[in-house]
Design goal:
single chain; globular
């Protein structure tokens, strides 16, 4: 995450991202969601990932999922979509993801925090924000908005945090497209920002064909984004910072629905929840 000082209008979006992201990450890091998806018949982690995350879009072809997800290499979505829909419906995958994610949160948070008035209030305010933003140009967010909001506070908090995550993700993609940064290039920039070198060793891209990675790195050198050794240039670092700043700016609309007092209340109620999740790595 960029440490660039934020304009006041982007501060809330960045702070909410920091607070809500650990809630969303249980879907990908904890065991319960994967177990629920496997019980449906999804054969691998990635079958379940593509099936459950793409499910709000309906039975769309791989090309649509590839475009909406953006940061996967060519052909990766097609290894799972549409074959995952042959025996398991999108609706079943959505329900399994929600059950597993809510179960992870309850386990990690414990009964006292999971059943607290503070969590219920955080769920209400997060839902108010998550259901208020325009959907135009926000494909993944619009898909999530079509789903019923759960009544259970823990599930509702996860669901609404995930809606906001997809809203932010749609804006991030817009920022990347505007900067002419492709999905694999975005991973290279992210790796460098995290201090990973060589960036080709980053877990999200290290498995890609060597020829593909070489072409991406060569293209980024030609554009002056990285140097001969694969480190940031000043132009590359500035490009990454502009993308992050614009992402924050584009992520602000949901929080316009909350008053300053509600924002403060939401942050106060989320703080102990997020701290508990961060301490366990959302696992």
């Amino acid at each position: 995450m960029s440490k660039t000082p934020l304009h006041p209008t982007t501060h809330i979006a960045r702070r909410m991202f920091e607070l809500l992201e650990p809630i969303c990450l249980v879907t990908f890091f904890a065991d319960e969601c994967n177990e629920e998806l496997a019980a449906l018949g999804h054969r691998t982690y990635w079958d379940g990932y593509f099936a459950s995350r793409a499910a709000p879009l309906g039975r769309v072809p791989a090309q649509v999922v590839h475009a909406a997800f953006y940061n996967f290499a060519d052909g990766e979505a097609a290894r799972h979509i549409p074959s995952v829909w042959e025996t398991i419906s999108p609706e079943a995958s959505i329900a399994a993801r929600e059950r597993g994610s809510a179960a992870s949160l309850r386990r990690i948070l414990g009964d006292e925090l999971a059943e607290s008035p503070g969590l219920a209030r955080a769920a209400d305010l997060t839902t108010k924000a998550a259901t208020s933003a325009p959907t135009e140009g926000r494909v993944m967010y619009a898909g999530m908005r079509t789903l019923e909001v759960p009544s259970d506070p823990v599930a509702r908090l996860w669901h609404s945090a995930t809606m906001l995550r997809e809203h932010r993700g749609d804006g991030h993609i817009a920022a990347l497209v505007g900067a002419r940064i492709g999905g694999t290039e975005a991973h290279v920039l992210s790796a460098l920002e995290q201090g990973i070198h060589p960036p080709e060793s980053f877990g999200r891209i290290h498995h890609l064909p060597k020829e593909r990675l070489t072409a991406v790195m060569d293209g980024m050198r030609e554009r002056g984004l990285i140097d001969i050794d694969g480190h940031f240039t000043d132009a590359g670092r500035a490009t990454k910072q502009r993308i992050e700043t614009l992402t924050d700016e584009l992520a602000t609309p949901p929080y316009d629905a909350l008053s300053p007092a509600e924002i403060d209340e939401l942050i106060t109620n989320l703080d102990p929840i997020t701290a508990t999740l961060v301490a366990t790595g959302s696992r």
